[in-house]
Amino acid sequence: MKQAFYFLLLSAFFACCTPMDRMDPIDYTVLRYEAADFSSLSKFVPMLEDYGGMMFFLDKKLTFSVAVLEYTTVDPFGNPIQASGLVYHPLNKKSKGVIDMLPIARLDITAPSEDFFAAEGLSALVGYTLIIPDLLGFGKSDWIKPPFLLAENTGRVAFDMRRAAAQYLWDRFRYQLPAETTITGYSLGGSAALATQKYYETYHSNTVKVKEVYAGGGAYDLTAAFNAFAKTRFSDFAAIPHTIFAFDHYYDLDLDLTQIFKADPPLDRDSWYNGVYSTDKIEKIGTDIAGYMHEDFFKPFELQNGEFKKLHPFLVLNSVSEGWRPKAPIYLYHATTDTYVPRECAEAAITKLRKAGANISLISYPGDHFTVGYYFMYRLLIQLL
């Protein structure tokens, strides 16, 4: 009789626990903590200033906490590495839910945790718990070369940040992180959002339940991106060199760069791929892709040289439009005239993921990458309300 009682008690305990309760614990360190209120909104400048009077719906009585966490994850080689990220959490009101927010491409070494009141943190202002990993190559891990657009590592780093946030929120606030989450991000964060969804649904569907995904301006299909750039021969952001250098480094491709880039002037690994997507590099290289890419880049795939063919399988491998069937609904936003990330990336993702059975929608807005980026963040706040 006593054994049956303990069995029923144990069964009831596990039945009342969410899947997140049974996640493996993870060590973390709080590097910075601050309590904030409506008077702190000026620290989100210039984002809030750009919105002007459109933020009238914000709760002026809301108080929230901001914390920078350090935690252990792995790099693309599988080595342990210390990473960092931000956690926002309401203090005087019940959290409306959890958002995994993936960061935009960080220029000139900044990271969400270094900004502290980061643009990605705006969703906290409507009462959500917000988890923002810096991703590798920024923040605490700024000494390594960024795994630019490496989908699997992006998902792993985001998941470990979520584990650290779950432990921190319980330790400090006795807040049990729910299993259900919304994933979102813009630009680099857009492709990272789908990479995180893919990682969660592929490896951790019993511990994380993705409710929905809002992604904007992302390079979801790298082959489509390269083809579009080859057609237009124009890019406002030097995404192609960053992608090639990252894949060459982390997949040990040993590419002959003289067959990838023009030999004069050369783009070498040391000066370009040192962990910074700096503005001065982008301005220096210019917007004319024909000015720095080898002539074979502009040929049909079957006519390209062996170095491009060596690179191609890794473009496919890291395209989040390939190789899975998303379970949660996806809402993609993209500018009609995007010269940073071609709209073809979103169109290819829609076609391929719908064919795989995904519930996915594409919302196009007139404007460029930055204009629609502001609109995306604002629409997200309205949607979350």
Give helix and strand order, one letter per element, not per position: HEHEEEHEHEHEHHHHHEHEH
User: What's the architecture of the largest domain, going by CATH?
Assistant: 3-Layer(aba) Sandwich
Strand order of the largest sheet: 1-2-3-5-4-6-7-8-9
Tally of strands: 9
Look at the structure and give the mean pLDDT. 89
> What fold name goes in the CATH topology slot of the largest domain?
Rossmann fold
3D architecture notes:
The protein is of the alpha/beta class. It folds into two domains: 197 residues, Alpha/Beta hydrolase fold, catalytic domain (Rossmann fold, 3-Layer(aba) Sandwich); 96 residues. Helices cover 36% and strands 18% of the residues. The protein contains twelve helices and nine strands. A nine-stranded mixed sheet has the order 1-2-3-5-4-6-7-8-9. The N and C termini lie far apart (51 Å). The N terminus is likely disordered.
Keywords:
385 residues, alpha/beta, Rossmann fold, 2 domains, 12 helices, 9 strands, 36% helix
